[in-house]
Predict the 3D structure of the following.
Amino acid sequence: MAAKTRISLSVSRDLMNEFDSLAKSMGQPTRSKAVSEAMREYVANRKWEMAKKGNVPGVILLTYDHHSRGINMALTELQHEYPDVVTATMHLHLAKHTCLEVIAFKGDAARIRELAKMLQNQKGVLDLKLISSPA
């Protein structure tokens, strides 16, 4: 059995309640088991994405709080800094303060990862998913 490490996290109460509720409904016996499973899934997905090379098509799904100061301009400017990979965008209003940006891309995998990291680091970004397809 692998050695275990005790960790401490700071998350919003709402997120914790939602996580606990979902984990319970999925039959997870403990929060630790649920967090471990979520971490394994995160690591597997990120390893797979980071290993891609060459020309890759796909989309970035970006959820953000559009009331966060400067977020709209920052996202637009970043997309304009990557004209070699960003091919199209679509903007959806999800709720009063939440928007979804769909950014279609096709280009060098390393350049796309760079764009995704820059987008993820913007204040107001709630979630980012990078979905690629075989070329």
In short: DSSP finds four helices and four strands in the chain. The domain at 54-132 is CATH 3.30.70.1150 (Alpha-Beta Plaits).
